[in-house]
Amino acid sequence: MNQSLQKTKITQSSNTERKTAFVFSGGSSLGAIEVGLLKAITEFGIKADFILGTSVGSLNGAIFAYNPTLEGVEYLESVWNKVKFTDVFTPSPITPVKNLTTFGKYLISPKNIRKLIERSLPFQRLEETTIPFYAVASDLKTGKEIVFNKGRAIEALMSSIAIPMVYPPQYMHNMMLVDGGLINNSAISTAIKLGAENIIVFPIGYPNTPDVYPKKLEQVLARTFLYVLARQMISDYYHYRSKVSIHVLPSPNDARLDPFDFSHSKEWIDLAYQRAKAWFEQGGLNSDALPDEYPCDVYSQELHLAEAVIPDKDKPAIARLRENLEEISENVKEKWHEKSTIIKESFDEKKKGFLKRKKKQS
Predict the structure, then answer these.
(1) Segment 118-125 long-range contacts (CB within 8 Å, at least 24 positions apart)
(2) Of 148, 150, 149, which is closest to residue 159 (Cα–Cα)?
(3) pTM value?
(4) Which of 12, 257, 280, 337 is deepest in the core (most CB within 10 A)?
């Protein structure tokens, strides 16, 4: 067997102190939520013995593991406040066309996201982190979870974030590595194998809008994506809660949550921070109950029986088009108002400064 890839049997630590693991979930742009949660937990003084990260959670986890302080959180916040959609999903019509016509395995070039990770990471090898860090990936050949604990940080993270069909797989050690979220998006089970007895999960939130239908294709995709990820986390929570202490931190459940929209990072960081801060102050850690009523909770006592009838008709195409055009128009007006307010405030500030200087000169 390759010496760089060995199957290891994990035994519980003989240390009498309970080991604490921070588990960062995957969720694309909603990784910003984890930064707000991290800020609150760091201020509260909770420390990790080791950290695991899946997909975007591997970037957050790696950077914090290198500098597990409020300064490290502030650096992460600055990274997220600058991230744009095009930093993650390279806008090029050539790559998808080329790969579709030549039987390729991905649609988007990883060039931009690789640059983003390289300029954000303050270290080169996983062994350089202050506290141990593990990046979770999936082997598409075997369906096994692969956990990186040493080696080139950029390659570990590129493997962990390689969404199947979106980004190219990473080939190493005779494996075809893709996004860790495929197998273990919130790596609670892996934290236990590594000896954790106290696990704190950083979730990515979900849209709590039971009375609102997703209107657009991207909203359907976003909700599908978030429900699938929530299902795995909830399953592991119930499966392991009798064996170890597990706390899932509270997170925003805003209707606008969209894992492909990077324009709300600052808002999600602030919302997550405020929710988590209030939760800590109210003694959230004193209970292992879930802080929210999560969707996809098949372990709840509720049973939803229904009669199958003739379905309601969807809105006609012209009505959908009109509705979306009205929404776009409202968004444009809102953004224009925000921009004009900023311009006016800037102009007033400059005018004030000019008049002040003129007064001094006279």
Answers:
(1) 118/154, 120/59, 120/63, 120/79, 121/59, 121/62, 121/63, 121/153, 121/154, 121/157, 122/63, 122/66, 122/67, 122/75, 123/66, 123/153, 124/152, 124/153, 124/154, 125/150, 125/151, 125/152, 125/153
(2) 148
(3) 0.81
(4) 257
